[in-house]
Design goal:
This protein is mostly helical. Helix content is about 75%, strand content about 0%.
Length: about 290
């Protein structure tokens, strides 16, 4: 690609230029970037500690000291929303790390080795995929008991089959390529073929899948917390805060409405970013 100055444009510069020109990617990236910054700086941005209680200020309406009011224990809602961003993104990051390593690894092995490895991995994925993802996560969380670790394990368990199937299909499409056959004929080790030849060529679709999946993971984490199976008090969780606010929605709507709005905007941001990255990284769509 030639830039405006006539000099060849680097791949990074070309990607940035196209990213800026993609409305979904730009809007989604801006929202996600803002949420990530808030999550990283939550302790510094929050006006109060998320666990500070003051029973004299129970269900206080928004004012200059508490911009979004207080909850049933007199805790500042804004501070808990900001701190909840750290927990939600932390859970999403942990789930993504586990599923990308486990799912992509198993999928590449299944697609490359075939045989009994392919059969075992795909049948395990079929069994888990036979259940609705959220229902299966709720079942696992109920068995394991509530907590952050439970949320991460439950969501990773239901999300890896999709990543594994995607990685397998991509590897199957690459197996017949000449550079793969040349690597096999030259005696290159299987691990090197997988890491040096397969992985770089399937990384872009996996990243798109991951960015879109963050929205599902955050929603599922909020749902588990809403049901009392996820993050437990005193740690703030957007799902738990929405649950607490629903019981007083008519008299004190600030907690449920403000938390739901933040959760909704965050999910929309990740979905828009995922759609934009798909358009930018998928050559079938990009070259139209």
């Amino acid at each position: 690609m030639i830039g405006e100055s006539g000099a060849p444009e680097s791949e990074l510069a070309e990607f940035i230029r196209r990213f800026r020109g993609n409305r979904n990617a730009l809007i989604g990236g801006s929202i996600v970037g803002l949420v990530v910054i808030v999550a990283l700086l939550a302790r510094h941005l929050a006006p109060y500690d998320f666990a500070d209680t003051n029973l004299a200020l129970v269900w206080m309406e928004p004012d200059g000291d508490h911009l979004l009011g207080t909850d049933s224990l007199g805790r500042d809602i804004l501070s808990r929303i900001l701190s909840g961003a750290s927990i939600s993104l932390g859970v999403a990051g942990a789930v993504l790390a586990i599923t990308l390593v486990l799912g992509a690894g198993l999928g590449m092995l299944a697609g490359y080795l075939g045989g009994w490895v392919d059969t075992v991995v795909m049948r395990a994925a079929d069994i888990i995929s036979a259940f609705p993802e959220l229902i299966f996560a709720i079942m696992l969380a109920a068995v394991l008991g509530p907590g952050v670790a439970t949320v991460i394990l439950a969501l990773a368990a239901v999300w890896w089959p999709g990543v594994s199937r995607l990685a397998r299909s991509l590897v199957l499409g690459l197996r017949q390529e000449q550079f793969i056959e040349a690597a096999i004929v030259s005696g290159t080790r299987r691990r090197r073929i997988i890491l040096r030849h397969f992985l770089p060529n399937i990384l872009a679709p996996l990243l798109v899948r991951a960015s879109i999946g963050v929205g599902f993971i955050i929603t599922a984490e909020a749902t588990l917390s809403f049901l009392g199976l996820g993050v437990q008090e005193p740690l703030p969780s957007w799902g738990g805060m929405i649950r607490d606010g629903l019981s007083v929605l008519r008299t004190d709507p600030s907690l449920a409405i403000s938390t739901s709005a933040v959760l909704g905007v965050t999910i929309i941001g990740f979905n828009l970013l995922g759609d934009g990255l798909r358009d930018l990284l998928d050559p079938r769509i990009r070259d139209r």
